[in-house]
Amino acid sequence: MKQRAIFEKKLIHMKTKLFALSITMLSVVASGQNVVPDIESGKIFYEEKIKLDIKLEGDAVQNADMFPKERKSEKILSFTNDATLFETGKDISEDMAQSPEEGVHIKMVTSGDNKIYIDFKNNKITEQRDFMNRMFLIELEMPASDWKITGNQKIILGYPCIEATKQDTAGAITKVWFAPSFPIKGGPAIFCNLPGMVLGVDVKDGERTYTAKSIVPAEKGELKIKKPSDGKKVTEEEYHKIVADKMKEMGIEDGGKGDGTHVRIIIKH
């Protein structure tokens, strides 16, 4: 048993070294191709797309084409070497329906003025979540960097990006594209802690995506990032229960975390 433990420890150490080596090699390749200047602080503007969870009941089924299949919004990541703040910009979606017919009742639950603050020095995440006009604060640990580097590459805003993937316990796959030549380990939402800035994300084959659209540098020392402080402090589990109970009350029992957009269309006779 002791020999097996020593072998497993060596194996883990070897995998860690190989991972670090592969990142170093890819970073060298990427930096050789990069034509954009180094940026220490500034803002990245992302487009977020969410596939709408639309439940049609009654005669509403025949009017399915009235309703959009996705919702778009602008997200802004402010970043420095010490911290990032991810927050909502403007809603760039069209109206839910052009002219809802009489008797059609729409229930919609969307994420509100959510903010995600990441403290790189202390490896802590603070989330401010707005749910049904109630504000909550949740403290989290920095997520583990357990991504698998695929070697696939693409260019986003002039930065050569490398693909990494992760599979959750339910089998759902998340893909991210990070820029090794962009040294800050940030990204949209909590997609961070990779060896470079995350400029693209694809969750569950397009269920939710983030794509960087522009980067605006800031002068050194000009940008100040403030940690969110408004809201009731709760744990992740407590927040999920609050959301689940409210969604059930509204007749949206397949909700869950309250981090997306849920729509239910009901015909009232």
- Strand-residue proportion: 35-45%
How many H/I helical runs?
2
Integer count of domains = 1
Structural class: alpha+beta
Describe the structure.
With 269 residues, the protein is α+β, with helices and mostly antiparallel strands. Mean pLDDT is 78; it is low at 4-35 and 95-100. The chain has one domain: Clam (outer membrane lipoprotein receptor (LolB), chain A), CATH 2.50.20. It contains two helices and 15 strands. The strands form two sheets. Strands 9-10-11-12-13-1-3-4-6-7-8-14 form a twelve-stranded mixed beta sheet, covered by helices on one side. It has a three-stranded mixed beta sheet with strand order 2-15-5, with no helix packed on it. A hairpin with a 5-residue loop joins β10 and β11. The termini are far apart. The chain has helices spanning 2-33, 236-249, and strands at residues 42-51, 53-56, 70-79, 83-91, 104-109, 115-119, 124-131, 134-141, 148-156, 159-167, 173-179, 197-203, 208-217, 232-233, 262-267.
Concise synopsis of the structure shown:
This protein has 269 residues and is an alpha+beta fold.
